[in-house]
Amino acid sequence: MNVVWTDLWKLLLAAALGGIIGLEREAKHRPAGLRTNLFICMGAAMFTLLSDQIAGQHTGDHTRIAAQIIPGIGFIGAGSIIHARGDLVTGITSAATLFVVASVGMAVGGGLYITAIFATGMVLASYRCSDSASGSSTLKSCCIATKWPGEAPTRLNSRLTDCSNHSTP
């Protein structure tokens, strides 16, 4: 019965750590928010637990199930990357976040609590540092706020509706 409570604790911790990262993304109105990060972190922890327990019962390789988390997250991450018009690519940070959140879940599932908590803190710190370095502005908001000297209002209006044109006139 003690093993069950330990496993439940691991799942709760994974959900909390993934949820914290997801809340940070959701607060910034970014894709892959609370539910996505929470589910991926908890799911990675669950697969890590299952991998160890199922293989342990059958004297098999206990890394086989857990090893499939990485390509699975890669598939989900690739789906979150979107190629827009021109050279604009979005979703890379979302994909990277999902990858890190899965590793946090695997760490919790493997019993590496301090490592998982530290990694979560590093993710949150990197978000804070990048926000303060960029002034919390995105390329789109910079594009909207910019009016080039001597630019006709119709040209400005077209750039306001289509911020994929990042070149100077």
What report would you give on this structure?
The protein folds into two domains: 2-136, no CATH class; 137-169, no CATH class. It has a two-stranded antiparallel sheet with strand order 1-2. It is mainly α. Helices cover 72% and strands 2% of the residues. A hairpin with a 5-residue loop joins strand 1 and strand 2. The longest helix is centred in the first third of the chain and has 26 residues, at 2-27.
Count, helices: 8
Radius of gyration (Å) = 21 Å
Q: How far apart, in Å, are the first and last alpha carbons?
A: 69 Å
Outline type: globular
Q: Which descriptors apply to this entry?
A:
2 domains; mainly alpha; globular; 8 helices; disordered C terminus; 169 residues; single chain; two-stranded antiparallel sheet
Q: Quick recap of the structure?
A:
The chain has helices at about 1-25, 35-55, 65, 70-80, 90-110, 115-135, 140-145, 155-160, and strands spanning about 80-85, 90. The chain has a two-stranded antiparallel sheet. With about 170 residues, it is mainly α.
